[in-house]
Amino acid sequence: MNSPRLPCLERAGLDGWMVRLFNTIEENNLLWLTALGEDCEAAFGDALVDLVPSYTTLLVVFDPLRMTPCEARQQLVDILACLKPAEAGADGRLHELPTRYDQQTGPDLQRVAELSGLSVESVIEAHSSREYRVFALGFAPGFAFMGLLDQALICPRLDTPRQKVPAGSVAIAGQQTAAYPMATPGGWNLIGHTPVRLFDRNRDGFSLLRVGDRVSFVPMERACD
Amino acid sequence: MIERTLSGFRVSRAGPLALLQDSGRFGVRHLGVTQGGPADLHAWAWANSLTGNAWGTGVLEITFGGLELVAEGDLTIALTGADLGIKHNRQPAPRWRTLAVAAGDTLTFGTPANGLRAYLAVSGGFRGDTVLGSSACVVREQLGGFDGQGNSLREGDTLTVNRAGTPPAQRAAPESERHDYRQMAILDLLPGAQIAAFTGRSLFDAFNAEWRVDQRADRMGVRLTGPALQCSIGSLISEGISLGAVQVPPDGQPIALLNDRQTIGGYPRLGNLTPMAASRLAQCMPGQAVRFRAAGIDSTLRQHRRFLQEHAAASAC
Question: What is this model's ipTM?
Answer without folding.
Answer: 0.96
